[in-house]
Known about the structure:
The chain has 38 helices and no strands. The chain is mainly α. The longest helix has 49 residues.
Amino acid sequence: LAELVQGLNSPDPAVRDQAVAEAEKRLRDQETSEEKEGESKTTVNRTLINTRASDVANAEAVNPDGFLAVLEKDAKERAKQRKRNEHLANALKEKGNAAFRKGDYVTAIQRYTEGLEKLKDKQELYTNRAQAHLKMQQYEKALGDCEWALKCNEKYIKAYFLMGKAHLALKHYSEVRQCYEKILQIDPQKERLFKDCMNEVNLEEKRMKDEERAVKEVESGKLAALSIRELLQKLARPGQDVLYYTGGIRLLTGAVKDCTEQTLFRTNNGFSILKDNKVVRRGFCAERKNTGEVDLSVSLLLLWQAVCIGNEENQRLLLTHPDVNAQLPKLLSSGVSEIQKETLALIALYSENENGRRLLVRHQDLTDWLQVLMMFVNSADARAGSAMDVLSDLAEEDRFKTQCCGMLSTGALPVFTQLLASAKLVNQAALARCVGIVGNLCADAVIRRQMAQCEECWQACLKLVDEHFDVSTPAYQECVFAVLGLMMNLLLESNVTIQCLAVDISGRCMSLLGDKDGRIVTRATGVLSRVLPASSLAVEEVVKGGVVKKMIKVLKAGGQITSSYAVKTLSVCTRSNRQAQEDLVESDKRFSVLLKVLDSENEMIVGNAAFCLGQCLAVPGAATSLLHSNVVMILLKHAGGDATRTSVQENAAIALGKLCVAEPRHVLQLRKLNGLAILNSSMKYVHS
């Protein structure tokens, strides 16, 4: 009876229905039994008289409490059992998720099903299983799971979203819109998701209409349409050799000229060539291809380019084909130039637009792609440029960066280091682009951290800079420029490797400050501004090498970016190095350059210039040399100004205070300008 009551109270509709049926059956059986007893009664009174009335009375008195105790015990046991089941269901869900991530959707469905056997009202298991069904194109089953999830929670947004995906695959467009509208009703903040989903529905509906129009054109007897159908039928013939199929594929490629032919290719199961034709599949998937198989593979790649260019649906179908998905990275690494060239051209169709990149990231494991694409820097032909185009496009995707992180230290980073060390032997134009792309990837903190800790990578960068003086080609110049940019990005990190190499890094940059290419001078100055704070020894070495005089020369040449790096370098050097302070006073007579820099509109430049000036005023005679200048007015303007960087007010106020202490005659000018009040108000910015 307790089990029956438990079943009637179950949240699972199937269990409740079963319990109701069992209860009705028992009631019917009881009524039938009573009718039979009534028919067989006689006049003889067979009532059994219980002589132990007191026992019955006692039992009746005890039963209510006993019944409640049983109910309470049962409730506790059920709570414990549910907790155990929930733990088991969660474990099975994680196993299912792991299988799903590996693409093993059959195992994933099995694990989710086992989890539901433990806990039938766990909504996540239904939606996870629905996702796996969607991957296997089992759309009706996915709908069923979404419906069960909504029985568990009628406001479960994920269930409506996946249900919409399933309906979309089944071309139930009105149902799709209902699902997405329901999401917006539940959570109005999902408006962007709603719009994206509705756009997808509209595009899919338009695609279907295009297909219907193409089918009508076929039925009306258009020659081009019929030729595609006939060619596909010929390619479906079994028992032919590789040469036969290669010729058929080339003819088919020539027949695909616009979106109508692309649609006809799809609607006539053109993508099944690889799946249904054993000869074609074997040749395309062969590890070591003979000449005929190479021609076959190239022909297939050209065909797919023709049917996929500008056609998102064809791109999706091709990329979700298991053999194509598995073979793309292998084709890139094949070493056969013709295959690599056309594979890169096919991938470029995806990478050059946002939707295509999303398809690649979603359906391809791109973990090794950074390493594979980098290897094309060794190619002397157009493959190197094509590979860099693809890599540059992929670098815009955050998910690509995330996938790169996993194998960077053991995969791509050693390859990249070797390319830098062999800069004189590789395609230098491609290497420069590759270095620039890696520099952009360093915007990701995880990638940047791993690279900044790699001493071999730093040494390779320094070797490339060293060889700059032996190789003066424009292509090598671009490599140096790119490497300096990479070094600047890596120097956003601070670690032991950088501290140990700071002297070497700063020494190479000093040697580049006389380069004829102003871009290289700018970046060399930028690297100095970022590496010097890591090592006092490096500061001493560059000061001995005349860095102050060089920076004053850079500041005289102008250019806001270069000036920003130069004045930052000076501020680092003059912070704690007396020789640097004296060199600045000697090199910049009456601080004419610094005073000019103090008039900049760039707050960072002004703040660092004020700091340098304040540090140098400790040098005897420095403050006196400024007596007939407008330095007091300039510093007052910044100390009492409204710069967003408070370091501007702070450094200007400190410099003004040091100026008046070192040379009291500046106080007269300060008083004339009512500067004491301004200086007093700006002291709130001074921390020490």
